[in-house]
Amino acid sequence: MTEITSMVITHSKATVEEIEEAWDGDIEKMLIDLHSNDLVCECVVLKTCNRVEIYIVSPKGNSVLFQFAKRMGLSSNIIDFFDHEESIMHLLRLACGLESMIIGEDQILGQIKDLYQVAKNLGTSGKMLDTTFSKAIQVGKRVRTETEINRGALSIASASVDLAEETVGDLKDKMVLVIGTGEMGTLVTRALSHREIELMYIANRTYEAAKELADEMGGHAVRFDQIDANLMKADVVISATGAPHYVLKYEQVKKAMDLREKELLLIDIANPRDIDPSISDIPHVTLYNIDNLRVINEKNLEMRMAEAKKVQAIIDEEFGLLIKQYKRQKADHLVSELYAQSYKLRVQEKDKAITKLSAYHTIGETESKIIEDLTHSIINKILAEPTKVLRYAAEIGDDELLESVAKLFSISRSSLNTKVKDEMVKCSPSAE
C-alpha cells in the first residue's frame, strides 16, 4: 500500500555531532536524490539545528528509508522509523512544538512551512504529503491560538541568552558578541535586545547585513576581520552562522585569552558547529553547544505540561479527522470510477435518444440541453447515496464492501491503482 513513511533523527536520541554527521548535502540535493528512486512517489525533508527528518510516500517506505540510512552510514541507534499513522502524529506534534527541545517554541512552525515549500517548489511533494503538511501547519496555528503552549516559550536562540544569564549573571553591563545575522542570529539579537543590553556587538561576513541588524536592534556592527579584537573584550560570544567550517578556532581564542584576564563564555548554536570543540580545553573559557540547552528545556517542561495536554487533545482530534480523510480517499478512487462508467453510459444513451428523436422532428439547442441536464441529474442522484455509503465504509475500514462494489461494477484493482498513481507526483510501475 502506498502510504507515508518517515525517518527521524532528533535531539531525543542523537547528539549534535551525530546530527551533523547525518546530514549529507543541501536540502534540494537530498530531495532530488530521494525522488529519483523509482519507489518514492513524494518526499519532504526537514532540517533544523537539532533534527533531520525525511518523509516519503512509497509502497515500500521502510525498505527505501532503511537502505537510504545504510547508504549514509547512519547508526540505527539514533533513528526512528515511523509508519503512516505514526508519521502523521509525529508531524502534528512537531508543528505544535511538542517535539521540540524547547517545548512550545514557535520557530519550528515557520521552519516546517519553509522546508515544505522547498519540496513544493521542486515538485517532490504531492497530494498525500500536501494534505499532511497543510494539516500540520493549520493545527500548529490553531494550538497557538487556543492554548498558551507558547506563552513564555523559548527558541533555541533565546534559550542561549537565558543560558548566558545563568552562567555569567545579569547581561546588562556585559559585552555580548553575536556572530551571524541569519535567522538564528537575528533571533539571538532580538532576545538580547529585550534584556536592554548596552554592549551588544554583531559580526557578519557581510558588514552591511551586520550594520542593518545592529541598527534595528540597537547594537554595534563589527566587521568579520575585527572578531579577534572583540574577543579581547567580550564576556559572552554567541555564534550562529551557516558556515560549513569553524568560525572560531583554537589558536584564535587561545591568543585572545593569553592577552586578557576575565572569563569568556562561548555558546555555539550553529549546525554544523561554528566553534572548535577543543577550545573548551583553554583555561577560563566555558563552551556550550545545543546539547547544553536541554537543561533549559527541563526547567520549562513542568510549567508547560498542563498546556501540552490541551495541545495533545487538539492534535488527537485533528489526527482523527485527517486519518478519516485519507481513508475516504480510498473510496474516492472507487467513486470516481463509478461516476466515469456512469457518465460514459449516460453520454451513449443520451446520444442514442437524440438520434431517435431527430428521426421524427428537429431537436433544437433547448431540447438537447434539457436532455443533457436530465441525464446528468439522474446519474448524480442515483450515485449520491452510494457515494456516502462507500466513503463511510472507507472511514470505518470496511474494505470488504469496497471490494464487493468494485467486483459488482467490474472495476479492476489495476484501474484503481492507475488512478492513485495519476494523483501522485509519480510512481514507477514496479512500485505496484
Automatic annotation (TrEMBL):
Binding-site residues, substrate: T48, C49, N50, R51, S100, E105, D106, Q107, Q111
SUPFAM superfamilies associated with the record: Glutamyl tRNA-reductase catalytic, N-terminal domain (SSF69742), Glutamyl tRNA-reductase dimerization domain (SSF69075), NAD(P)-binding Rossmann-fold domains (SSF51735)
Pathway, per record: Porphyrin-containing compound metabolism; protoporphyrin-IX biosynthesis; 5-aminolevulinate from L-glutamyl-tRNA(Glu): step 1/2
Annotated GO MF terms: glutamyl-tRNA reductase activity; NADP binding
Domain called Quinate/shikimate 5-dehydrogenase/glutamyl-tRNA reductase: residue spans: 162-295
Entry keyword set: NADP, Oxidoreductase, Porphyrin biosynthesis
Site (Important for activity): H90
Catalyzed chemical reaction(s): (S)-4-amino-5-oxopentanoate + tRNA(Glu) + NADP(+) = L-glutamyl-tRNA(Glu) + NADPH + H(+)
Residues engaged in binding NADP(+): G180, T181, G182, E183, M184, G185
One Pfam family from the record: GlutR_N
CDD domains: NAD_bind_Glutamyl_tRNA_reduct
Domain of life: Archaea
UniProt note: domains: Possesses an unusual extended V-shaped dimeric structure with each monomer consisting of three distinct domains arranged along a curved 'spinal' alpha-helix. The N-terminal catalytic domain specifically recognizes the glutamate moiety of the substrate. The second domain is the NADPH-binding domain, and the third C-terminal domain is responsible for dimerization.
HAMAP family the record matches: Glu_tRNA_reductase (MF_00087)
PANTHER family per UniProt: GLUTAMYL-TRNA REDUCTASE (PTHR43013)
Subunit structure of this chain's protein: Homodimer.
Function summary: Catalyzes the NADPH-dependent reduction of glutamyl-tRNA(Glu) to glutamate 1-semialdehyde (GSA).
Family the UniProt entry places it in: Belongs to the glutamyl-tRNA reductase family.
Note: During catalysis, the active site Cys acts as a nucleophile attacking the alpha-carbonyl group of tRNA-bound glutamate with the formation of a thioester intermediate between enzyme and glutamate, and the concomitant release of tRNA(Glu). The thioester intermediate is finally reduced by direct hydride transfer from NADPH, to form the product GSA.
Protein name (record): Glutamyl-tRNA reductase
Organism of this sequence: Methanolobus mangrovi
Organism ancestry: Archaea, Methanobacteriati, Methanobacteriota, Stenosarchaea group, Methanomicrobia
Name of the gene encoding the protein in the UniProt record: hemA
